Amino acid sequence: MHTIRLTGSDAGRFLHGQSSQAIALAAPGSCLPTCLISPTARMGGLAMVLVEAWGLDLVVLSGDATTIRQGLDRVLFPADQVELGSPEPALLLRFTGEAGAPLAGEPWMRPGVDLGAGRDQPALLLRSAAELPTWLEALPELTAAQAELQRIRQGFPTVPNEANDNTNPFELGLAAWVSLSKGCYVGQETLAKLATYDGVKQQLRHWSAAAGTDVPCRGTSLFTANGDRAGQITSSVSTEEGGEGLALVRRSALDQASLLAEGGVELSISTPPAFVAPPVGAGGQTGAQA
After folding, report:
1. Number of domains present in the structure of the chain
2. Which of 51, 88, 96, 241 has its CA 20 to 30 A from that of 210?
3. 140, burial (CB in 10 Å: exposed 0-12, middle 13-18, buried 19+)
4. Percent of the chain as helix, strand, coil, to the nearest 5
5. Which of residues 96, 112, 142 is at a domain's end?
6. 3-class DSSP string for 246-262
7. Rounded distance, CA 101 to CA 230, Å?
8. For residue 230, what are the domain limits?
9. Each residue of 3-50: pLDDT tens digit?
């Protein structure tokens, strides 16, 4: 992952208008989750904004930081008092279980959303020049495969599997990453219409397959028992118990406890813990929060 530093008197106002979260009036020390979206509210990335007295750090959690930085640079006006830094590598430590208990003296971030390790778990940002804290040596580290399984079980979307040109924040359970009251910003009109006119047509769900079955891969189509098209798998892993993953399920099939993957494999369907239902009026009645 990477950070992009924004400095200058207009930094807060500028990023406020280019992302989904209310940033302009945030107090120093704030940690705000935000989506980087297109004018049609399609996903380009997930980030946290660290607000400081001198400016902002955009912490790119998922998405290409260079592309995001180029996109921000393209919409800067000459009169804007904003300096965009280059993407800098960083490490975000996300804690699970008892290891999430804060330790004194560390600059813990608590964005108030699930980053893939639980909604109340803290995170620690380590910049490229920072040394790993010595207390980390005593904590077990998840392997890449274990971390991917953790992400899937929580329901945290990632680029490009779930977050891409075909999805918007409400479909991915990211309602808490969006402000509908902050005024004009890129993608605001589309999100406002979704929240007003019941426009969310699919939602992110967790699926699991029994042991001994063929585990469907990303891109596999889903169907109801009646043969109606029900969605598509976006992430897939094999486990000792069978298989698990994430899928985008059409609204018409959200009440189904199980769906069939292409080829006939039965999948159990559930709402992942990280998923926050769309705002009332945006399909929320058929997609209750777990």
Report:
1. 2
2. 96
3. exposed
4. 20, 30, 50
5. 142
6. EEEEEHHHCCCCEEEEC
7. 40
8. 197-286
9. 999 999 999 999 999 999 999 989 999 999 999 999 999 999 999 999
